[in-house]
């Protein structure tokens, strides 16, 4: 099934129209190659998608141009690409998003030398990045980071452990958050760029989860890096990570919208063709009501996602709250839609290898990574309640 054509929303301009056409071209290429690619080992599949997306010019949308001092990334374009890729192939979406997630902090906080060294190769698909924040003691509480970086002369020595790191084992560099101790909590954490071949750095075996992709633990044992491998100023690591999320959280919602949209397209086709009690399922009012909920959920989620992108790209305002809304709304809606799709497909939707079964697994981690839904609610609630209201005005 291949009927993705973007959205007719007021949040887009001309270049997004052109991008939608290029994404449809990608779908044709992907449809041709997918059968062969999915037989390759996971790491080789990712390598294929990184190179393919670079060759087709899509990585330029995820990785900032090192020569551009504004480090401009258009969130609506990132969201459109992620939605289209995940509509067809979750691993292609993963490969695209990781190139951006593992470089955004370098684009925003890096020195010219760091930007030259790391952004260009990732943009060209010659190098793969990772960002390692989560630790075994609890990923949601980033301020409690235990990995330490100790200053020794003109170097830092890093010790600690990270877990659930996407691209772990295949990345060429890792952005590592480590405690440098300028202050308690979040303000005492700095970010470092650590090359994968640095002595003392190693990754564990691939962690198998329900939606397979390169994922591993990361171990740092007396890893020495030059002081100029620090990203931004001492104590700015948490800020660098959150700035990355302000760009990429909306795009998780977009990827979930892509999965939800494909699920609806597949469901409509199935309901029109599956005969039950002597007529197509599409003529059953309970089916119609469920499909109505699915499409309404999807369209509300898409509006929230692209509005967050538009606010950042066009209005240039802080979108921490809106990006959290986009991730929360997109992923929760995507999960509900996929669950309904499985229900309407019946046993067929549970069969290993069925597209609905695959997407039912693909959607699940999205409500956990880059901040679980509970964390998004806390961000939204905290920011809403911190906004002063004028006396006598309730809304
Ligand atoms: C597929 C995948 C890819 C990932 N990739 C990366 C990566 O590249 N880099 C990286 O650093 N990390 C990565 N992670 C880790 C991810 O960011 C963490 O899993 C996530 O932040 C949650 O942390 P945790 O798993 O330790 O759960 P915990 O922090 O132990 O939380 C468990 C659950 O508690 C609930 N919860 C959390 N906080 C609150 C709260 N304040 N109030 C109420 N309930 C709460 C949520 O339901 C949460 O799922 C990845 C995870 C997955 C699944």
UniProtKB/TrEMBL annotation:
Is this entry keyworded Transmembrane helix? Answer: no
Question: Which keywords annotate this record?
Answer: FAD, Flavoprotein, Oxidoreductase
The segment(s) forming the Acyl-CoA oxidase/dehydrogenase middle domain are: 130-223
Q: Which domain of life is it from?
A: Bacteria
Please name the PROSITE patterns in this protein's record.
ACYL_COA_DH_1
Acyl-CoA dehydrogenase/oxidase C-terminal domain segment(s)? 235-384
Q: Which SUPFAM superfamilies match?
A: Acyl-CoA dehydrogenase C-terminal domain-like, Acyl-CoA dehydrogenase NM domain-like
GO BP terms: fatty acid beta-oxidation using acyl-CoA dehydrogenase
Write down the InterPro entries for this protein, in alphabetical order.
Answer: Acyl-CoA_dehydrogenase (IPR050741), Acyl-CoA_DH_CS (IPR006089), Acyl-CoA_Oxase/DH_mid-dom (IPR006091), Acyl-CoA_Oxase/DH_mid-dom_sf (IPR046373), AcylCo_DH-like_C (IPR036250), AcylCo_DH/oxidase_C (IPR009075), AcylCoA_DH/ox_N (IPR013786), AcylCoA_DH/ox_N_sf (IPR037069)
GO terms for CC?
cytoplasm
Please state every residue range assigned to the domain named Acyl-CoA dehydrogenase/oxidase N-terminal.
Answer: 48-122
| Cofactor field | FAD
What GO annotations for molecular function exist for this entry? acyl-CoA dehydrogenase activity; flavin adenine dinucleotide binding
Protein family according to the UniProt entry: Belongs to the acyl-CoA dehydrogenase family.
Name of the protein? Medium-chain specific acyl-CoA dehydrogenase, mitochondrial
């Amino acid at each position: 099934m291949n009927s993705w054509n973007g959205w007719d929303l007021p949040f887009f301009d001309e270049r997004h129209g052109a991008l939608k056409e290029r994404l449809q071209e990608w779908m044709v290429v992907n449809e041709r190659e997918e059968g062969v690619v999915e037989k390759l080992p996971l790491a080789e599949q990712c390598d294929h998608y990184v190179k393919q997306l670079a060759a087709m010019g899509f990585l330029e949308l995820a990785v900032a141009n090192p020569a551009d001092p504004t480090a401009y990334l258009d969130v609506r374009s990132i969201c459109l690409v992620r939605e289209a890729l995940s509509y067809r192939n979750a691993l292609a979406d993963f490969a695209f998003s990781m190139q951006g997630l593992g470089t955004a902090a370098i684009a925003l906080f890096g020195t010219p030398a760091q930007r030259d060294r790391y952004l260009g190769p990732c943009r060209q698909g010659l190098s793969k990045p990772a960002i390692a924040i989560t630790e075994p003691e609890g990923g949601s509480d980033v301020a409690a980071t235990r990995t330490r970086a100790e200053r020794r002369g003109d170097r830092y020595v890093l010790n600690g452990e990270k877990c659930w790191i996407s691209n772990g084992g295949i990345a060429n560099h890792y952005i590592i958050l480590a405690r440098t101790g300028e202050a308690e909590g979040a303000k005492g954490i700095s970010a470092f760029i650590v090359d994968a071949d640095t002595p003392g750095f190693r990754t564990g075996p691939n962690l198998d989860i329900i939606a397979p992709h390169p994922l591993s633990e990361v171990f740092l044992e007396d890893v020495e890096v030059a002081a100029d491998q620090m990203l931004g100023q001492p104590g700015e690591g948490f800020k660098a990570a959150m700035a990355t999320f302000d760009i990429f959280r909306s795009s998780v919602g977009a990827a979930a919208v892509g999965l939800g949209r494909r699920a609806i397209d597949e469901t409509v086709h199935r309901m029109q063709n599956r005969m039950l009690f002597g007529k197509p399922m599409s003529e059953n009012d309970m089916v119609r009501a469920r499909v109505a909920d699915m499409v309404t959920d999807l369209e509300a989620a898409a509006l929230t996602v692209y509005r967050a992108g538009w606010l950042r790209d066009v209005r240039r305002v802080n979108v921490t709250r809106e990006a959290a809304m986009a991730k929360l709304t997109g992923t929760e809606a995507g999960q509900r839609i996929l669950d309904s799709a499985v229900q309407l497909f019946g046993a067929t939707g549970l069969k290993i290898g069925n597209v609905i079964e695959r997407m039912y697994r693909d959607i699940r981690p999205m409500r956990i990574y880059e901040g679980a839904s509970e964390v998004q609610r806390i961000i939204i609630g905290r920011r809403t309640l911190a906004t002063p209201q004028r006396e006598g005005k309730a809304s």
